[in-house]
Amino acid sequence: MAQYIPTLDYYSNSLPKACTIFLHHYADDGLFRVHSTRSICSSSVQKVASSSHRLADLEVGKEYELVISTYAGLCRYRVGDILQVTGFHNAAPQVRFLRRKNVLLSIDSDKTDEAELQKAIDNTTELLREFNTSVVEYTSFADTKSFPGHYVIYWELLVKDPALSALSHEVLDRCCLAMEDSMNSVYRQCRVADNSIGPLEIRVVKSGTFEELMDYAISRGASINQYKAPRCVNFSPIMELLDSRVESVHFSPALPQWTPERRR
C-alpha cells in the first residue's frame, strides 16, 4: 500500500506515520502470526514450485510464497504474497514484501511486476510535484492488439492547487519516458534494440474514475472491506469503463536509455 503514502502526506501535511501492526502479518483474511512450524512454498517470479520448506530452512536473498493453515478451515492456503528473506532473528526469517504473485505486464521477453511498476510511478513524482500534482490511483494493461505491443497506464491525478498548476501535454509525455527509463534492462532492450515494444502510453482519466471502478466491482459481488484497485486489468467491461473516462492520451516521446552489456 506504499503508493498511498503521498496522498496521506498531502492530507496530513506530512505528519509522521506508523503502522500499529508490528508483530502480525496483515492480510484480507485477518491477522495472524507465522511460527517456525509453518511452511512457505518456494517460488520464483514466474512459477511457484511444488516443494515446501520450514521457515528455519529458508535462504537469505531467495524469494518465497507464503502458505498458511488456519483453525477456520484454510488448509495450505496460498496467500499470493511473494516475500524475500532479508535475514534471520534466531531461527525465524526476517522478510520483506516484494509483490503480489502473477501481477505482470509482458509484451515480448519483458516481465514487469507490481513492485517495478510502482517504482516507475514513483520516479515520475518529481516531474509532477513542481505542478502541485500527484497520482491518486493507477492501473495498467499490455496492449498486444497494436504492433508492436506496448504498455498502457491509466492515471487518475490529484491537482492540489488548480490555480497554480499548468500541467502540459509535454510534461505528461516526459512522464511516459521517465517510466520507461525506470523499467528493467530487458524491457529497454526490447524498446531500443529489438523494436518489439512500442512507446509507453499514459491515459489520464477523470477524477472519481477509480471510485466508479470500485462501485462496479462491488456491484459484481466484491467485498467493500477487501477491495483494492487492480494494478493490471484485462477484463473488457473494466477497460471499457476506464476508456470512457479518458481525458487525455500521452506517449513516450523518445527511446529510454539502454546500453548493451559487454560480453567478457
Structure in words:
- 25% of the residues lie in helices and 31% in strands.
- The chain has two domains: 99 residues, no CATH class; 148 residues.
- A hairpin with a 6-residue loop joins strand 10 and strand 11.
- It is built from seven helices and 13 strands.
- The strands form four sheets. A five-stranded antiparallel beta sheet has the order 4-3-5-6-7, with no helix packed on it.
- The relative contact order is 0.12.
- It is globular and about 55 Å long.
- It is of the alpha+beta class and 264 residues long.
- One of its GO terms (cellular component) is cytoplasm.
- Belongs to the IAA-amido conjugating enzyme family.
Order of helix and strand elements from N to C terminus: HEEEEEEEEEHHEEHHEHHE
Low-confidence stretches: 32-49
Mean pLDDT: 82
Biggest sheet, open or closed, and with what strands and sense? 5 strands, antiparallel
Helical fraction? 25-40%
- Separation, N- and C-terminal Cα atoms: 41 Å
Radius of gyration from the CA trace?
A: 20 Å
Shape: globular
- DSSP, total strands: 13
Our count of helices gives: 7
Structural class by helix and strand composition: alpha+beta
Q: Which SSEs are present, and which pair or pack?
A:
Layout: H1 5-12, E1 25-27, E2 30-32, E3 39-43, E4 48-54, E5 63-68, E6 77-89, E7 92-100, E8 104-105, E9 112-113, H2 114-122, H3 125-129, E10 133-143, E11 150-159, H4 169-182, H5 185-194, E12 201-205, H6 209-219, H7 236-244, E13 246-251
Helix pairs in contact: 2-4
